[in-house]
Write a structure and sequence with these properties.
alpha+beta; two-stranded antiparallel sheet
Length: 86
C-alpha cells in the first residue's frame, strides 16, 4: 500500500500570446510540499538546498524554492526502488 499522499493538483494548460494552448505546470511551494510529504518546511529547505541528503529536486526563483510535482514523484520513486532513506 502506498503510504504517500497524492500531490496537490497541477493545472497544465494555458493560453499563449497568440491564442494557442501551451503547456504550463503550476509549481508547488515549500509549505505545499511539506504538507504533501508530512515533513517540516525546514526539512524541505534543507534537502532542496543540498545541505541534507538525498537532495530534493527544486527550482530556485530568487530566494524562493518551487517544486514540480512530477519531479518530486520521480524522486520518491527513486528512493523507494533504491531503498535509500530520506
Amino acid at each position: 500500500m502506498n503510504s504517500f499522499k497524492q500531490p496537490p493538483p497541477n493545472p497544465v494548460a494555458a493560453v499563449g500570446n497568440q491564442g494557442d494552448m501551451i503547456a504550463v505546470t503550476r509549481l508547488l511551494t515549500v509549505s505545499e510540499i511539506s504538507r504533501w510529504l508530512a515533513v517540516s518546511p525546514s526539512w524541505i529547505r534543507d534537502h532542496a538546498s543540498g545541505r541534507r541528503r538525498p537532495p530534493l529536486p527544486c527550482i530556485k526563483l530568487g530566494k524562493s524554492l518551487r517544486f514540480d510535482s512530477k519531479a518530486v514523484n520521480g524522486w520518491l520513486n527513486l528512493l523507494r526502488t533504491s531503498g535509500t532513506a530520506a
